[in-house]
Amino acid sequence: MRFDEAYSGNVFIKSHGNYDESDVVIYGMPMDWTVSFRPGSRFGPAKIREVSLGLEEYSPYLDRHLEQVKYFDAGDIPLPFGNPQRSIDMIEEYVGTLLEAGKFPLGIGGEHLVSWPIFKAFKKKYDDFVVIHIDAHADLREEYEGEPLSHSTPIRKACELLGPENVYSFGIRSGMQEEFEFAKTSGMHMSKFEVAEPLKEILPTLAGRNVYVTIDIDVLDPAHAPGTGTAEAGGITSKELLEAIMLIAKSEVNVIGADLVEVAPVYDHSEQTAIAASKFIREMLLGWTK
User: Domain for residue 12, yes or no?
Assistant: First the structure.
């Protein structure tokens, strides 16, 4: 995959045409090889790009315009269908190259396992960073039906890689009893059900620290995001997730990268899930990159 050539398909709205002059690189990870319920998130990156063309380029939340951020849409990593390990290796290598070039990586999934190789790539560059994880699911399993490479495992892997005290989960409302017990006893932070209110308490304690943010679209209630593989009733609204993004943007943490995952367009013919995701990415671009 080339880093310096513009993607030939749809690109995220206002994507800058020059890789070298861009500070941020958007890249897709079209993978759903390990999902435990409904596949289809490999089509998420393309759909999010497509519907982004309906966005306004100005954010009234942040009083910023997309012209103020130089970002390059590199397209999708050409992941080998059905091969989780090779796909993970390719993502880690790709993100490592972006970090070496001084870019801010902004990934679009794909299932949530794609965040695991990103964590590994960041660990090679940053000795100390925190993961903020916004999701309906704990993702703290060690394996799923005997398979350690699963979209239900990336946050457990993050705890093992970074130390559980450097992992902060928000919005969690689903998981095995053992996952919630692990969260209680390991030293990680887990806020059940809510996102914005606990973030208001936690963010000041992370002031000055490097932070990577991973957002699973299923943190939203299915009424707001039906287009996802493992929908879970009882979630937050789009407005509440926007508030959380604004809280991070206006905090004193140093966001070093981010991803948004698990948009599965086939389950949402209205496209409201992808439309919401594209707006969240706009705010992440404007609020989290300098």
Answer: no
Is the pLDDT at 6 greater than 80, yes or no? no
Query: Is 139 marked within a binding site?
Result: yes
Going by C-beta distance under 8 Å and a sequence separation of 6 or more, which residues neighbour residue 174? 136, 137, 138, 232
101 falls within a domain: yes
* 20 among annotated binding-site residues: no
Asked whether residue 194 is domain-assigned, the answer is yes
- Asked if residue 238 belongs to a domain, the reply is yes
Is 133 marked as binding a ligand?
no
Q: For residue 216, give the CATH number of its domain.
A: 3.40.800.10
Q: Residue 74: what pLDDT?
A: 95
Please give the tally of structural domains in the chain.
Answer: 1
Residue span of the structural domain in which 170 resides: 24-288
Mean pLDDT estimate for the chain: 95
Known binder of ligand: residue 218?
yes
Q: Mind listing the pLDDT tens digit for each residue in 135-174?
A: 999 999 998 888 888 999 999 999 999 999 999 999 999 9
Say yes or no to pLDDT of 76 above 70: yes
Is 135 annotated as ligand-binding?
yes
Is 65 known as a binding-site position?
no
How many other CB atoms are found less than 10 A from the CB of residue 36? 15
